[in-house]
């Protein structure tokens, strides 16, 4: 990817639609009209300009509305920049340990690239980024032999085909001498490469890849390698820490603290020396002679990145006063400047690139810029309280499917969030949770710039991101859902459709299912956003369930529950009250029927048909439904599979893993709250795991070397819903 700031070309604008008063009163029907739906599908987003009569007053008290801001360092949000900068930190940490450096370990590495002369072009240089070269080498080696990687750097330097392929890969930038690439590898990467590939070869997986998560210890609260130094010691005053390997408490006042405890000088975590030395894939098991030590995650990189929160809480009016706006610059000039800051590939932290954003503002009480019934209302504003385009009401508007979730409230989806922008504050590329639609309304302020990639280009866009940083998407499988990564829309290939919008006060941006979108603010503004669903969203909601399994991301709500409730509603009302097409209903019934039959088949197989040498023959079947599952009113509504993180809609297995707390007394768990089920399953040291039936069969069904004395743990199956009754409901809905 190249820095295209300075040669930007216009992107096509999304359509702007002007609904009538009548259409605006029934927004979900309007959005479901064929012409509107086609436009939303083609462009990913549309802009709605309300009728002139719709102009709600801002119902927020600016002198009393307070919030915290997140701090955004723009050039670290550039996906490739962040990997390049993190890699320099990884190399620095490695050098400290490898060479016992009693200094910063930089070995002369100050920037993420080395400039080399371009062959045949006088005074012309080409930047060779260390991260890019390292990943290119690994990818080429995997393509040559995916079973075992070369680990000796001298052998690597003799591999002619590799260096020819590497030299050819830089031709789009200019002509690079092979000897220059070899020199950079030998001077900066060779030692790191040898230790890195030795660890990769130890992992028994095949085929090999550029990284394996087996090399990292699991972190409950991950540390970012790019955190400012000022924030690293914020928790150093704690009296205790948990060892990341065994999760046992480490008391800092213990007598043997200095001799038996390792402290990573990068992330500041404490480890038992014995745990470090027993860990299979630890790169450095001893401290340096100068008593320094750095953990695996800080040398190999965990890929984590998150926004830091500002220490100051702002009152809205004070925030507005601090947001100095340069009104002399046009939107085009601001856009060019924004992407120049994002694409700045230097490591030095430019203060002007640290931006404040009051994002995702919400609490337990309703917060909205729209007039609400429990607020003091201005004259003439009462008509907006119940209007369906008041974003408090939109998730439950006529035709929405979210009310079928038994009145569950989902913060950020069914409850609007507020966003207070400043110049260049940004929202990174993402899709809405479970591919739902979203509505974003601007109450006041400067323009917000949007970019959209429609569902038709979703797959090639994701492939592009993976190809840019392949190791990062192994370390952070759900990266596209983390809202921390930018790629300039002007750097995308023509095969990926990308569009632009400029949103101003009293305008809505509607994103359609599976639309990637991002953008930034050109000054202070105040926006509000919420998610909603329509019948045409249903196939996308079902698709999201399978997609989320691939990245082990939890769903915010159970699509299967929504579909089951839809069928119950139709049977109860005796007709199609949700204005859903017969074709769509038929496909929903077919989908549910296949799910239920699959679960019934798995249950039967587990109870009767499994070979004795595969599953334990002592599987206990719970004939009663888990008490209170469908009626519990708590923060955690669903039971999640420990492996794929999918919601267990129909049944699950409580699996007792071998060699983890084997002597723990088993107790009946049917009366546990859902939150307790999930907590025990997430505890790495607990012997119990919750698994969906599919994962239980495919991943953990095999038992080897089990004792034959009958004292082993007994796995338990819990059935959540009456599957036979569901099939009867589906049959009724088809009539």
From TrEMBL:
Keywords of the record = Iron, Metal-binding, Nucleus, Zinc, Zinc-finger
Q: Which GO terms describe its molecular function?
A: histone H3K4me/H3K4me2/H3K4me3 demethylase activity; zinc ion binding
Residues covered by the JmjN domain: 14-57
Gene Ontology cellular-component terms for this entry are: chromatin; nucleus
Q: Which residues cross the membrane?
A: none
Keyword NADP found: no
Q: Name one GO biological process term.
A: regulation of chromatin organization
Extract the CDD domains matched here.
PHD_SF
* All copies of domain JmjC, residue ranges: 383-549
The name this protein carries in UniProt is: JmjC domain-containing protein
- Give the source species: Naumovozyma castellii (Yeast)
Tell me the classification of the organism that encodes this protein. Answer: Eukaryota, Fungi, Dikarya, Ascomycota, Saccharomycotina
